[in-house]
Specification:
Helix 1 links the parallel strand 1 and strand 2. The two termini are about 25 Å apart. It is built from eight helices and eleven strands. The chain has a single domain, classed as Carbamate kinase (3-Layer(aba) Sandwich). It is an alpha/beta fold. The strands form two sheets. Strands 4-3-5-2-1-6-10-11-9 form a nine-stranded mixed sheet, with helices on both faces. Helix 1 packs across helix 3 and helix 5 runs parallel beside helix 7.
């Protein structure tokens, strides 16, 4: 089976790496994730990964507790670099050639993000991890995923979550929440659906980048969405 996509950006939250512990990096979880991504690689699509740092620190939460917002966001970016390095190690242990490109220069451990270099890595068959967010405070890793997808001319942004799509309200607290199969960008913005921040949606809309929101906690779902199966919710024009 071949993927209908040429190049994709997979957005992962840092929290998924923590497992049941809720903090830090679970070796069991990251190993299983690496194996899933290896299986996806066989479909032929070029995979870029944007990863957050919420398993270590969340900038907004730290700012709400009194930390300077810009400082908190920079710490969060550094946390995403740590996650990117850990994921790179896990991927290379399952024989996937991987490069970490970071928006914050830390040359001892990762390459600086350069658009043409990222595209060249894709062309050489490497998995590319984009770390460090956008390199600027006040922007989320959702926005980083949308920006990187637009810059490297990806075909879609895959937003991996813990729920099976986008709902009209939080399904955990609203039993009558309605799940959507498809939405337009304008509908997502108008309904203020909290699956991705508004800046990220705007970037995707301006660049005609579909967003597919799906449940990554179900084994095999990453492969299914990359293979083009209709799971989760698709947001497009």
């Amino acid at each position: 089976m071949k993927s209908p996509y040429r190049r994709l950006i997979l957005k992962l939250s840092g929290e998924v790496l923590a497992g049941e512990g809720g903090f830090g990096i679970s070796p069991t979880v990251i190993r299983a994730l690496a194996e899933e991504i290896r299986d996806v690689h066989t479909l032929g699509a070029q995979i870029g990964i944007v990863i957050g740092g919420g398993n270590i620190i969340r900038g907004i939460s730290a700012a709400n507790e009194g930390m300077d917002r810009a400082a908190a966001d920079y710490v969060g970016m550094l946390a995403s670099v740590m996650n990117g390095m850990a994921l790179q190690d896990a991927l290379e242990r399952v024989d996937l050639r991987t490069r970490v490109l970071t928006a914050i220069e830390i040359r001892a451990v990762a390459e600086p993000y350069i658009r043409r270099r990222a595209i060249r890595h894709f062309e050489k068959g490497r998995t590319v991890i984009f770390a460090g967010g956008t390199g600027n405070p006040y922007f989320t890793t959702d926005t980083a995923a949308a920006l990187r997808a637009a810059e490297v001319q990806a075909d879609a942004v895959l937003k991996a979550t813990k729920v099976d799509g986008i709902y009209s309200a939080d399904p955990e607290t609203h039993a009558d929440a309605v799940r959507y199969d498809r939405l337009t960008y304008d509908e997502a913005v108008r309904e203020n659906l909290q699956f991705m921040d508004q800046a990220a949606i705007a970037v995707c809309r301006e660049n005609d980048l579909p967003i597919i929101v799906f449940d990554m906690t179900v084994p095999g779902n990453i492969r299914k969405v990359v293979a083009g199966e209709a799971i989760g919710t698709k947001v497009s024009g």
